[in-house]
């Protein structure tokens, strides 16, 4: 595990009614004063108390809406004044930080594209030196957990103690149902390495489509995330950015009301049954490791044989047979085809790595 960062708990951030699950919501972008105010009022009436809106928008392609700029900060100020909600926005450079601080923004966040740039992060971190404004750091667009943790360490080293993180999925080249694939293993590893940091999930940018929001949100809650950042808009289809993924404040309320919250260790129930099952799972895991060891020894022998007989490592016909046969057997045992195929691809890759080493020895 990492050296643990001594971060403040969310309850120590100086806000009175912040509680789990933390829900941050509001439009992808502030568009007009009316849109901002109406969205905020509807969210507030539905019981939400942290408002978000992008003022400066990092867009993938030019000639798309890049945010209203500093004028939008006045609208956020008005949200705070009229509804009492906390207000938050994304900052990508030092100028954004100063303007946000001047406007009394309560919570900042760093977008995925900025997290990927250590120079920008270092400058923003230094601009926040000595201040205790909370900042959430989204994962970088690429699936690099160290880059994400590195950004958090840059803020920490600058003395910032009110730090949270947001999982918003990772860019993918291959077609997928997600706009940014969640790769849940990464936030799980992240939580194992930094258990003290509040972690939110952003189902809007993971899904890219409002139909996926409920499932992604439930999954995050099941993985013990501390809350969600979800985009909402009074008229989602007409949004100037990210129209497909936004929902109305009322739809957000329905979504949150339907979430099922489970506890890690519910009080008052016996854990014997689950402990027994966990014991058995541990035994299975031991067996899996032993079988992998045994298989790799065989791969080693095959590597030596191929070297001696000047054979190629990759034998596509044989690999196809192995994969097909395993998927067929897996299906009989009710195992998901994709799951078996991923496991066998990983095993095959490791086998190729070992044989390459042997051939080059
Ligand atoms: C956003 O929250 O509107 C945003 C731009 O998100 P991300 O940095 O995750 O793409
Ligand atoms: Mn957005």
CATH fold topology of the largest domain? TIM Barrel
What's the total count of β strands? 8
Major sheet: order of its strands? 1-2-3-4-5-6-7-8
Give the C-alpha Rg: 24 Å
Features:
361 residues; binds phosphoenolpyruvate; Chorismate Mutase Domain, subunit A; alpha/beta; TIM Barrel; 8-stranded parallel β-barrel; 13 helices
Summarize the structure in words.
With 361 residues, the protein is α/β, with parallel strands linked by helices. It has two domains: 10-258, TIM Barrel; 274-359, Chorismate Mutase Domain, subunit A (Up-down Bundle). 48% of the residues lie in helices and 9% in strands. It has 13 helices and eight strands. The protein has helices spanning 33-45, 71-83, 94-102, 112-115, 118-127, 145-157, 185-193, 203-207, 213-222, 249-258, 272-308, 316-332, 337-360, and strands at residues 22-26, 50-52, 86-90, 107-110, 135-138, 163-167, 199-201, 227-231. Strands 1-2-3-4-5-6-7-8 form an eight-stranded parallel β-barrel, surrounded by five helices. Helix 6 links the parallel strand 5 (135-138) and strand 6. It starts with 21 loop residues before the first strand and ends with a helix. The relative contact order is 0.10. It binds phosphoenolpyruvate and manganese (II) ion (MN). The site of phosphoenolpyruvate has 10 residues, from loops.
Topology (SSEs and partners):
Blueprint: E1 22-26, H1 33-45, E2 50-52, H2 71-83, E3 86-90, H3 94-102, E4 107-110, H4 112-115, H5 118-127, E5 135-138, H6 145-157, E6 163-167, H7 185-193, E7 199-201, H8 203-207, H9 213-222, E8 227-231, H10 249-258, H11 272-308, H12 316-332, H13 337-360
Parallel strand pairs: 1-2, 1-8, 2-3, 3-4, 4-5, 5-6, 6-7, 7-8
Helix pairs in contact: 1-2, 5-6, 11-13, 12-13
Bound molecules: phosphoenolpyruvate (PEP) and manganese (II) ion.
């Amino acid at each position: 595990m990492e050296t643990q960062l001594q971060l403040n708990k969310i309850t120590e951030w100086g806000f009175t009614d912040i509680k789990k699950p933390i829900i941050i919501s509001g439009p992808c972008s502030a568009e007009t004063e009316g849109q901002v105010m109406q969205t905020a009022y509807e969210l507030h009436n539905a019981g939400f108390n942290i408002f978000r809106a992008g003022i400066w928008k990092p867009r993938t392609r030019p000639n798309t809406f890049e945010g209203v700029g500093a004028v939008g900060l006045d609208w956020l100020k008005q949200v705070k004044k009229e509804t009492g909600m906390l207000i938050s926005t994304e900052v990508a450079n030092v100028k954004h930080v100063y303007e946000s601080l001047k406007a009394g923004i309560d919570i900042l966040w760093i977008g995925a594209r900025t997290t990927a740039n250590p120079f920008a992060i270092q400058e923003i971190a230094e601009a926040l030196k000595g201040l205790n404004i909370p900042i959430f750091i989204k994962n970088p667009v690429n699936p690099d957990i160290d880059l994400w943790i590195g950004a958090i360490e840059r803020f920490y080293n600058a003395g910032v103690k009110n730090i949270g993180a947001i999982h918003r999925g990772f860019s993918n080249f291959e077609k997928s149902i997600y706009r940014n694939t969640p790769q849940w293993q990464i936030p799980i590893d992240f939580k194992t390495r930094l258990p003290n940091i509040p972690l939110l999930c952003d189902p809007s940018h993971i899904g890219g489509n409002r139909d996926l929001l409920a499932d992604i949100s439930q999954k995050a809650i099941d993985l013990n995330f501390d809350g969600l950042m979800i985009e909402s808009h009074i008229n989602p289809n007409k949004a100037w950015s990210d129209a497909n993924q936004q929902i109305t404040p009322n739809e957000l309320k329905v979504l949150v009301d339907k979430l099922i919250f489970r506890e890690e260790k519910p009080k008052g129930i016996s854990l014997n049954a689950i402990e027994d099952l966990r014991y058995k799972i541990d035994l299975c895991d031991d067996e899996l490791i032993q079988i992998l060891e045994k298989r790799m020894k065989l791969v080693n022998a095959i590597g030596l044989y191929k070297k001696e007989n000047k054979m190629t490592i990759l034998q596509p016909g044989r690999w196809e047979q192995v994969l097909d046969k395993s998927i067929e057997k897996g299906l009989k045992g009710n195992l998901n085809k994709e799951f078996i195929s991923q496991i066998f691809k990983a095993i095959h890759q490791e086998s190729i790595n070992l044989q390459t080493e042997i051939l080059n020895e």
